[in-house]
């Protein structure tokens, strides 16, 4: 007899309740992943729902999971197709008595779950969904999902003071493989899912290799090997390099790294190395991640509404030209453009970048925040439906505006980050790199910066920051004259 374990965003062997339950039934376990063509369709905004970079990271994750399964006597079946079509056929073919999967939250995923259960309604297969997406289990929370507090502070205090993080599930020593499969399937090529040659980015970003093995290596490195965790609280707002923040999020998004595993690793670190504001803050960020998942449980599709979960009365522009500038990192605002170019090339962007790029698109350009959220869904390796869409609506309507010129001065005063991603500005020195439109055409030409675009508008909100840059620039010129 066979138990089918359908994998989704839970691509790991460690701390995997769904896998543990599948094995506990004492049958052979058929682990299967479906590449759903709907995830790769072209959106009305004229770009694909999932980019090549995300697809590549997913393939790496699955390849690594298959290798890890093989080492334990198991395997991973790869299929292309809608899960509600593929899985009932597998149930019938292998006479499966049970089908287990990790439960999702948002409507697209829930629709697939409902369609699957309907398709198996008249079968002899028992379908079980298991929660496994959060640090704190909803069954343990002091409130029901429909009563999730509206503020993050209230949520965090009520949850953390009245709830404990569950212990980890053990990683299985062996996997009871399904014996009657001769073809386990290959990972699809980009062409199989409709990617064109223009969409395939020929880049090798070794910083973000998909898969559980690399996730666990990163966790060990950031904690006990480098001890970078000790300074996380004070470095997390930087943008350049790999060590300013944990970078756990891409692996958490695919489920290659369990939030509970991070939590207990941090607790071990606090006992053996250091307990400080940084260790508290890293766990705080994971609880924030939980907060958005609980809000989605409460509000459902309202997280996608134009006015957000609070149904704000808002009006947005739908300016294709401005959106293209923003997407391609050509707004003329270096701190925004550098982050957008990093995103487009690597599939990653710092938290500081996300705040500024979202604020600029929605508060300065006044473009519909859902366009930006869709672009981040397309690009981000760490795309998570709840975090992405709620972060965007929050930045667009609920919290403070961020001035990208001021933020550039504050977090990248010497322009090291900007120069790294905008080669047109690499010869500019000093704070004026955050406002290169202040340079004369002659100087820009001398510095090879004439190809960098001008902003469509210099907003009055930036005046104070621009004045500071001008004063700094004048002092620098005067100082050079004094030396001469």
Description:
By secondary structure, this protein is of the alpha/beta class. It has three domains: 1-132, Rossmann fold, CATH 3.40.50; 133-168 and 212-304, Serine Threonine Protein Phosphatase 5, Tetratricopeptide repeat; 404-483, DNA Cyclobutane Dipyrimidine Photolyase, subunit A, domain 3. It has 19 helices and five strands. The chain is globular and about 80 Å long. It starts with a strand and ends with a helix. 42% of the residues are buried. The model is unreliable at 477-484 (pLDDT under 50).
Structural class: alpha/beta
Order of helices and strands: EHEHEHEHEHHHHHHHHHHHHHHH
What count of structural domains?
3
For the largest beta sheet, what order do the strands appear in spatially?
Answer: 3-2-1-4-5
Overall 3D shape: globular
Number of strands: 5
CATH architecture of the largest domain: 3-Layer(aba) Sandwich
CATH H-tier superfamily of the largest domain: HUPs
First and last CA, distance: 87 Å
Determine the mean pLDDT: 95
> Which bin fits the share of residues in helices?
40-55%
User: What fold name goes in the CATH topology slot of the largest domain?
Assistant: Rossmann fold
CATH class of the largest domain: Alpha Beta
Low-confidence stretches: 477-484
How many H/I helices?
19
Cα Rg:
24 Å
Key traits:
484 residues, alpha/beta, Serine Threonine Protein Phosphatase 5, Tetratricopeptide repeat, DNA Cyclobutane Dipyrimidine Photolyase, subunit A, domain 3, 3 domains, five-stranded parallel beta sheet, 19 helices, globular, disordered C terminus
